[in-house]
Design goal:
single chain, 471 residues, alpha/beta, four-stranded antiparallel β-sheet, 17 strands, globular
């Protein structure tokens, strides 16, 4: 072992080797950074020798030099490769939280690229030649689409909820039904956010039943907000009762210095109900009922970037814009560009809304998915005998903590390989394909739902499966 360690060439000698110079050119690192990688690789090898784990050639040989630079090249590629990568979502879950939720529209993407590549009027009024506000860029679009008097954008919906409660109800009471004290992803709870904001939670009713008189009996001189939380990520069924927004709005109007605030969560700007998909309230409908303020997400049913949107009465939104926390939770130029690019399609009308991938994928017909699936399977089986394939009716999920009770009928492709297990195929698709392909595995079959796969991605998926079949 000691002899092996002594036989490892010194750093200065390895720096003069042709392989070092070749890697210097290929990696586009400077000499200092590559030397750092060399030292790190040598430390790895010494450590593996000391632990009797070195599987390479004997130090001091030409083969050892080759093995060292192979290991070094692997380390360089690993460190200087992006960890955030494109993947192909073949699961059928449209708002897959683990896979980045909403896929942006082409309008949004091009607007982000243009805004990122250049200087912009982020906080500058071109007409007046003076400082402006970043709030102005999407506010007019949000007002047009939702019917609100004013609007603003923060970095996510949890921030929106927090800002509203902190700015409007600090050291005051907020009345909420027990059945609406939801927990969203990552163990964030409405009750915990409220506690952090300095507002005092006043629970009314029970888990399954809350009546208007529960709210009436809970009001005190310290009440600042009557809050309703749309339970977009779960459903209570059976012996239930809740108070509708319209009733709570009428009730709140008769109170002094108390506002009605609804957290809509999923942010539906499009009426999916007319297609028989779910019961999500459209933001505009709640605003028209007279809600003082609403909050919702940008990257769920809205189909845009991660953002929290606050809309409502102008005097309330103006107050929120001036709050010190507004700067803490503000969004950057690329988020605003992505949101503006998304909202433009909403503002132009229903004919352009299907440019937004979330809306398109939610509304695609089962017949279209079935036709695409049969074409795909035909192409695959014509070029490979290694797979067995079938197509059957199944269900897609909306995902992202939205529409928990909605069933989207779909058709899925189920594949079996003559020599590889479903787990092995799934692993190859995830780890050996660039971009990685994420599928479902069920009953020893790999399932592909083309609802969330574009035609271009279909072709890549086909070629990847064919390459697997040749192994």
């Amino acid at each position: 072992m000691k002899e092996w360690l002594r036989s490892i060439p010194p750093v200065h000698e390895l720096q003069n080797h042709d392989k070092f110079l070749t890697l210097l050119n290929e990696s586009r690192l400077d000499s200092t950074q590559l030397t750092k990688q060399l030292k790190h690789t040598l430390e790895q090898i010494r450590d593996s020798i000391l632990h009797d784990e070195w599987q390479g050639a004997i130090p001091g040989t030409n083969q050892f030099i080759d093995d060292l630079y192979i290991t070094m090249n692997t380390n360089v590629n690993k460190q200087f490769s992006y960890t955030l990568e494109k993947v192909i979502n073949a699961t059928g879950t449209i708002l897959h939280t683990n896979l980045g939720r909403a896929r942006l529209s082409e309008n949004a993407i091009s607007h982000v690229v243009e805004t990122a590549r250049n200087y912009s009027n982020l906080e500058y009024k071109l007409l007046e030649g003076e400082r402006g506000s970043r709030h102005s860029h999407v506010e007019s679009l949000l007002k047009e689409i939702t019917g609100a008097e004013a609007a603003m954008v923060v970095n996510n919906n949890a921030s929106a909820v927090y800002l509203v409660l902190r700015a409007l109800a600090k050291n005051k009471e907020v009345i909420v039904s027990r059945g609406q004290l939801v927990e969203i992803g990552g163990s964030f709870r409405i009750s915990s956010i409220m506690e952090e904001s300095g507002a005092s939670l006043k629970e009314v009713g029970t888990t399954n039943k809350t009546h208007l008189y529960d709210y009436e009996n809970a009001v005190t001189p310290d009440t600042a907000i009557v809050m309703k939380v749309h339970t977009s990520n779960f459903k209570v069924v059976g012996f239930t009762e809740s108070v509708e927004s319209e009733e709570l709005i009428d009730f709140t109007k008769n109170l002094v210095d108390v506002i009605f605030y609804e957290d809509l969560g999923s942010g539906a700007l499009y009426d999916f109900k007319k297609h028989g998909i779910g019961e999500e309230p459209v933001v505009k409908e709640v605003i028209e009922l007279g809600a003082d303020v609403v909050t919702f997400s940008g990257d769920k049913l809205l189909g845009g970037p991660q953002a929290g949107i606050i809309a409502g009465k102008k005097k309330i939104i103006d107050r929120l814009k001036k709050h010190q926390l507004a700067r803490v939770v503000r969004v950057d130029k690329m988020t605003l560009a992505a949101l503006e690019g998304t909202l433009i399609d909403y503002a132009r009308g229903e004919s352009t809304m299907q440019n937004i991938p979330v809306i398109r994928d939610l509304l695609v017909s089962i017949n279209e998915i079935d036709e695409r699936s049969h074409v795909f399977v035909t192409k695959l089986l014509q070029r490979s005998n290694a797979f067995q394939a079938k197509i059957f009716r199944d269900e897609s999920q909306v995902g992202g903590g939205t529409m928990p009770d909605v069933v989207l009928p779909t058709m899925v492709i189920a594949l079996k390989h003559e020599s590889l297990s479903a787990e092995q195929i799934g692993r190859k698709l995830r780890t050996e394909s660039k971009p990685a392909i994420i599928a479902r595995i069920q009953k020893e079959e790999v399932l592909f739902d083309l609802r969330t796969v574009t035609p271009e991605e279909e072709e890549f998926l086909l070629e990847t499966l064919l390459s697997i079949s040749e192994v």
